[in-house]
Amino acid sequence: MDINKNNVFELLAGTVYALDVECVQVNLGRMCTLSCYHCHLEASPARLEKMAWNVAQEVLRALEKNSIACVELTGGAPELHPDFKRLVTEFRGLGVDVKVRTNLAVLLEPSLKNLSLFLRKKEVSLAASLPCYLQENVQSQRGDGVFDKSIAAITMLNKLGYGVGGGPSLDLVFNPHGARLPGKQSELEAAYRKELYERYGVLFSRLHTVTNMPIGRFRSFLENHSLTREYLALLRSSFNSRVLNELMCRRQVSVDWDGTLYDCDFNLALGRPLATKPAHVTAFSRTVFARRRIVTGEHCLGCTAGAGSSCRGALEASAI
Description:
CATH topology: TIM Barrel
Radius of gyration: 19 Å
CATH class: Alpha Beta
Oligomer: single chain
């Protein structure tokens, strides 16, 4: 492990710059069917924020004008947005690759009947949160009954071709239970494949390991258990300078439900917009944002600890 205190200081001092804008992450709102204890956005069924259609149109215009070929729809549960299907259809009409970040259980909601079939027809890839292959661990993080719903959703998606053969990708997302770093991604993926297939007969494309960020509900968990200082010390001592070039904020921009732009979903959760102004989708410019200074802070240590962490999993090749 390469521990470099000077690089830690530089990171927190804000000397990290973007390299391009290859993908745009769009947060459609905070409403979710779950209230997971590790959620950095504190999403829940009680949250009402959602992207208005005129803002969604600005996002569509920004991607078309700036030749952005990749979009990730997230939330909350993005599937709950009233214009979700319309927005996916518009993105695909532009030739944009669409990935949806799903909690899986939402796909079984009676009001979303046939949504999975719609996603399959639109060739939408999925990144599905499943923090463990053990029922008890998932339920402790996400609530009673969620694991069974998740397995039922994966079974349904497998039948549609997701995660099987040449079908659309179905990636699973692991996050640790408690104040620790993820294990090695390749080893966890092997365990997931074995356990999920042998126990439930389900398949998936890849596993992504994600570090819990010391913000939102997970921050509250740390504080309630007097673990904040210990966890931040773990992140700092595990700093890995080799992952700096691969940080997701260096090639991505996040758009919140109101159109405000952020370097990443974690800055979005903290209300820290782009340093480049105006930080709004109506002023989106790939050329301008491609070399912007990244707004950094203590929480950034979560992305640089161990093998690194991003929405696409571990960042260091040797750990993948």
